[in-house]
Target: MFS transporter
Amino acid sequence: MALALHVWSRERYVRPETNRETLAAGLADARATAGRLWKNPRMRWLLLAYALYAFTWQSATGFLPTFLRASKGFPAGLASGGFAALFVVGAAVKPVAGSLGDRFPRAGVAAGALVVAALALAGLLAASGTLAVGAAVVVFAAGLMAYPPVMQALLMDTFPDGSMGGDLGATRTVYLGLGSLGPSYVGFVAGRVSYAAAFAGLLVGLLVSAAIVVGLARSG
Model:
């Protein structure tokens, strides 16, 4: 990737100057970004909704095959196919979700994606047959993967033009950092109760995230 960027880029290399003044300015910008985001109530709710989604996403990518083997009795190969479905379905769904977000209110589309994912996860927890479980995984993947392109566009709409890059970087740091705790949660709960109980907790997180985005969609 670095070689491709070097070959394709038409920009010149510029060596940045690093001194106390530039470091101090960077810290001041970071504090200003954090303060600006925290003072915006809508931004706080969006960030919480995205953090809950990221928590579920990281957990699903880390433990979906293990959940299918432990709770649904899937063989290793079939369980791995469920994991692959997250990305195969996502590749087809993301452009469609982005297009819908351009045509309809983005908060509504994002809320719909979360509701679909939550309903599919509930169906996955209740399903028993191979076909039913497989269908639930596909729909779960569709809802889960339809969310990011719409939600990131919604975040960009919320940020001021002059600080859009810094604000997006700050929010990604927060929701990805909180989301990275998801696999630890699943491992902890599964070790003491079961994988089904751990994924039921993820369902609660998705429902809370969906409720937040629905509320934001209704408030405009």
Observations:
- The chain has one domain: 56-190+202-220.
- The radius of gyration is 20 Å.
- The CA atoms of residues 96 and 146 lie 8 Å apart.
